[in-house]
Structures are given as C-alpha cells and as structure tokens.
Design goal:
Length: about 500
C-alpha cells in the first residue's frame, strides 16, 4: 500500500526548491512509499501562521488537486517549514533531509516507520513533525472505521509533560486535553501515572516512583474532519498564528479544559471555529510504548540519539551499519571522537575532531583542529551584488541558546559587548569568504580570537539563512556523494 501523497511544508520559495531538488535525488528510494510527493510553500503573511495555519492551507491544496478522490485517499503531512533555530546545521536545507547514521534521510525513515500506520488507517490525513521519529510496534492495533481522530501518545516524564500537550484519560478513553500544564494541574486532573504507565497516582504511591503523563506524538484525522478544516481555511482569512496540536486538538475529549478559550481574541475566535469541528469527534486513543518517541530538535538531542547503543540506536539501527562519519570524505590521518558526528564533510586534508562535536557540510584546505563541543556548518550564500557564491561557516558551542535575547551575549570566551538586547541568531559574528576551505579556517580562528575589523564582512545566522544559495549547497553535496561512490567501487 502507498500513500496517495506525502506533503512537506516549506517556509519560503528557496526552501521549497531545495526540498523538491532533494526529493528528486531520492526519487528511486522513495517510490515504494507514496504515489506522489509535494512541497507546499507557506503563503506570504505579515505574521506567522504556524503549523495550524499551514495545515489549513495544505488541506485546501490537496482538495484542489484530488477533488472527489480526496475522501478515499490517505495523506501524510510533515510539517517541515521552520528555520531550525535550535539545530542550525539544518537551517539551510531542512531537518527532514538530514541523514542518520545509517545514511538514510529523516524523510526516508519517517515513511518507513509509518508504513505500519498506513496499512491500518482508514482514508484520512496523518499529521506529524519533521524532527521526530516514532517506533511503531509490529503488533500495535488500531483502525476503528468510526473514528474521526486517532491520537498517538507516548509516556513522558513530568518535566517534558509540562512543556507539551497532555492527554487526560478516564477508563482508557480521552477525557481532556491539556497544553503545557503545570505540575499542580497534572495532579488535579489525574493526568499522572506511575512508572509502569498503568496505575493512577494516589496519595499512597505519589512519592514511590517516577511519574509520567501521556503526551502528544502525531495524529490522524478522518477525511470528513480534513474536509471541514479545508473549508474553514478557505472561508476565513488567517490573521494569527495557530498550532496544529494545541489549537486543533484542545477541543477534544469529554471535558473542555478551562484554559482552551482563555486566550487573546484572535486566537479565541479561531479556537471557537475549531471547537465546532472537533468537539463531537469520535476519538481513538493509541498508546505507544516507552522509549518509542525520539525528538531531534536540538544539537544535543541529535548527538545523544546518534550515539552507538543509545535507546534510539537500539530501536532503529541495530540491523544496519553504523557510522558517525556520515557521507563524508576523511583523510587517513583524521581522528574523530566517537561522541561526535560529521555529515557531508570533506576533510581530505585531515582533522582532529574533539568530543561532542557536530559538523555538517564543511570542507578544509589543511589539517584542521576542532575543539570539544563545537557545532560547525558551512553555508553557501549569494549576496545581491555578487555573481558568484560566497561562504559562511557558522561556529557555535553545543550549549548555545540561539533564540534567547540577552543584554550581554557571550560567544565562546568572548564578551560581545552588544549595546541592546539581541540573540546569537541575530548578531553579526561570522565572516564571509570566497571558498569553503577559507570559511571554515577563518571562523574557527575567530572563535578563538574574535575581533571586529572594518575589512571583514560579518553576517548573522539570520542573514546567512536569508541569503542561502541552496543550489550551490546541494551541488556540493551531490558532487561529494558521487565522489564517495566512485571511491567505494
């Protein structure tokens, strides 16, 4: 069985073109999973529309493409249109096309993982994120044809539950949906379970074992619900940011959470419309086992999951050859710590890469030393005044928080002396160079000896992402992979 269509969302035209190019390169490997692959670009709005707004637009486009066949089809929608601010190695060409240690992309692994879901689901739409992988047990069962919504959930500890959507159950059925609830609310709504995920928390066992709640993984909506959402998006102009989890699913269950409609007027008006669609929906609840949900939203998470014999490795990679040097060319003199990962790099002149490093798309021109805890990615850019591609290497520490605005920023050991509140994403730190080799060398040098000079053009990460030259990036990757295949013959 094949998906009728797999849809990726893109935040702009450059990302859309890059995704389409990469899908084309993977066409032979993907053809056994779906009849069609589409990339839908988020329409321009003067504000963010979020994953919820993107979902409404995707459903409208799918209905326009498939017409009467829409109600008989099975679609997979992967939200992949972000800038990956917490995983900057993916900011240029997207998380969904990063490779795993088995040299398969996240896209390939997702469609492979969801094949069991596809075989059991009724016509409808599966909605998921691009930076997660879920382990689906072979003996898992679901597929009640009367269900309007199928929710997949996994057990999470209390710290994680307070930052995500939580499903409150009664007698095994969905009672209420919470969004980023406090510990007090988790307790008062009986959302917590003890360590075996079956017993309710009571006064007697509260301190006896670690506590868990069921948090959102991914979900399926029926063709009827999908049609209603497409109609809603068509008749109502988007005027705020919506989430395809919190805003869409918050109205499910027997009891509505008090916080669902306690929000600003714009979001509230949308939630009322969504409530009319989801309120009386029949819900099937599917529990995934522990250690089945893996998030790759940050560099630390990626390195953790990519380690040999990690929980993720044991779930997904035990039958395949493991690499922490992924689709890369390295000299025999190169030493790479086992806790580090390099991907699509050309280190033909040799390198010594320390512990817990993450390198993507870098190329050196001489022996290179990379200290512990470094994130590095070289991105081709095209400035308006330049006919040729130029290069910027982003060098960061594994623990850097790129989105946080601060009065006093530090970059490695350097006080950046910023005069206003700004984030590492927005401050110009990274030199523009004529070649990939020079770019890597200069950025590494500057993280040790940072000094602003009039003759060096510095760009922020935001600048680099806006100026990215996806054609040049993908051309380098294609040439490197082709060379690796030639060498391996």
């Amino acid at each position: 069985m094949l998906w009728t269509a797999v849809v990726l969302t893109a935040c702009d035209s450059k990302q859309k073109e890059a995704y389409e190019t990469q899908i084309g390169q993977l066409r032979q490997r993907l053809k056994s999973f779906s009849e069609n692959f589409y990339v839908f670009e988020d329409e321009f709005h003067p504000f963010k529309i979020g994953s919820g707004g993107a979902t409404l637009k995707v459903l409208q486009q799918l209905f326009a493409l498939f017409g009467d066949r829409f109600n008989r089809s099975r679609f997979l929608v992967i939200h992949s249109g972000g800038l990956s601010k917490r995983l900057p190695i993916a900011s240029a060409v997207g998380k969904i096309f990063l490779c795993l240690p088995n040299e398969k992309t996240f896209l390939e692994m997702k469609v492979q993982s969801y094949r069991r879901i596809l075989e059991m689901m009724c016509p409808g739409v599966l909605i998921c994120a691009s930076d997660t992988l879920e382990y689906i047990p072979y003996d898992m069962q679901f597929g009640d044809p009367s269900s309007d919504v199928v929710l997949f959930a996994h057990p999470s500890n209390v710290d994680i539950a307070t930052q995500h959507g939580v499903y409150v159950l009664k007698s095994g059925s969905l009672h209420k949906v919470l969004q980023k609830p406090s510990l007090e609310k988790l307790k008062s709504t009986n959302a917590l379970f003890t360590g075996d995920f079956s017993d309710r928390v009571t006064a007697q066992n509260y301190y006896a074992s670690e506590l868990f709640a069921y948090t959102d993984s991914f979900y399926i909506i029926s063709s009827r619900i999908a049609m209603d959402l497409a109609k809603l998006g068509k008749k109502t102009d988007l005027n705020c940011e919506l989430c395809c989890y919190g805003d869409f699913l918050g109205g499910l269950g027997v009891e509505l959470d008090d916080d669902y409609l306690d929000t600003n007027e714009l979001v509230k008006s949308w939630r009322i419309e969504l409530l009319n669609i989801f309120r009386d929906a029949s819900v099937e609840f599917v529990r995934l086992p522990s250690d089945s949900f893996f998030h790759f939203g940050t560099s630390k998470e990626l390195l953790c999951h990519f380690k040999l014999n990690s929980t993720f490795y044991n779930r997904f990679l035990t039958r395949e050859r493991y690499h922490n040097v992924i689709l890369s060319s390295v000299a025999s003199s190169t030493k790479i710590a086992s806790t580090s990962v390099i991907q699509l790099c050309d280190l033909s002149f040799g390198a010594e890469v320390g512990e817990n490093c993450l390198l993507y798309g870098c190329k050196n021109g001489k022996f290179t030393h990379v200290p512990d805890g470094i994130i590095a990615t070289t991105i081709a850019i095209r400035r308006h005044s330049q006919k040729q591609s130029e290069y910027v290497t982003l060098i960061l520490s594994i623990g850097d928080e790129l989105k946080s605005e601060k009065d006093h920023l530090r970059w490695f050991d350097h006080d950046l002396k910023n005069k206003e509140k700004i984030s590492l994403w927005d401050i110009p730190l990274f030199p523009v160079c004529e070649s990939m080799e020079e770019s890597l060398e200069m950025s590494l040098r500057m993280c040790n000896d940072f000094e602003r000079r009039d003759n060096i053009c510095l760009l922020s990460i935001d600048d680099v992402v806006q100026m990215k030259d996806c054609d040049a990036i993908l051309r380098y990757q294609k040439e490197l992979i082709s060379r690796l295949k030639t060498v391996s013959k």
